[in-house]
From TrEMBL:
Keywords assigned by UniProt, alphabetized: Cytoplasm, Heme, Iron, Metal-binding, Mitochondrion, Oxidoreductase, Oxygen transport, Transport
UniProt key word Heme: yes
Cellular compartments annotated: Cytoplasm, Cytosol; Mitochondrion matrix
SUBUNIT field: Monomer. Homodimer and homotetramer; disulfide-linked. Mainly monomeric but also detected as part of homodimers and homotetramers. Interacts with 14-3-3 proteins; regulates the phosphorylation of NGB. Could interact (ferrous form) with G-alpha(i) proteins (GTP-bound form).
Pfam family, one: Globin
Domain Globin: 1-149
Protein name, entry field: Neuroglobin
């Protein structure tokens, strides 16, 4: 029997992907709430942001949000064949390691992703959907984590 997960993922993402910047901002606002220590990692032209709000409204950071949403979009598109993204995700992991991101912070990103989906979809975000997204996100992080192995 076909597993319904890919359909649940696609169905829920359709709604979110209509306004990626808006929903991506919700994700990162939540992330900075949960892990304020991540804020200093985002510096552009050596300028430190004084607050999460300051960061979330900067053009450079909005660009980062767009990129993150595109990565999620790629994962959704390839949900049935994530191995095709493996090299790309490992190099993304290396880039994050290079700027001082700890692998452990990605579990907070995962919580923030689920929070954003719940905020966007409301009651339509079912436990089955949450489970499917947790599974997908876990696979993405596992691929990215190879960037910390120094393979």
């Amino acid at each position: 029997m076909e597993r319904p997960e890919p359909e649940l993922i696609r169905q829920s993402w359709r709604e979110v992907s209509r306004s990626p910047l808006e929903h991506g901002t919700v994700l990162f606002a939540r992330l900075f709430d949960l892990e304020p220590d991540l804020l200093p990692l985002f510096q552009y032209n050596c300028r430190q942001f004084s607050s999460p709000e300051d960061c979330l409204s900067s053009p450079e950071f909005l660009d980062h949000i767009r990129k993150v949403m595109l990565v999620i979009d790629a994962a959704v598109t390839n949900v049935e064949d994530l191995s095709s993204l493996e090299e790309y995700l490992a190099s993304l992991g290396r880039k994050h390691r290079a700027v001082g991101v700890k692998l452990s912070s990605f579990s907070t990103v995962g919580e923030s992703l689920l929070y954003m989906l719940e905020k966007c979809l409301g009651p339509a975000f079912t436990p089955a959907m949450r489970a499917a997204w947790s599974q997908l996100y876990g696979a993405v992080v596992q691929a990215m984590s190879r960037g910390w192995d120094g393979d």
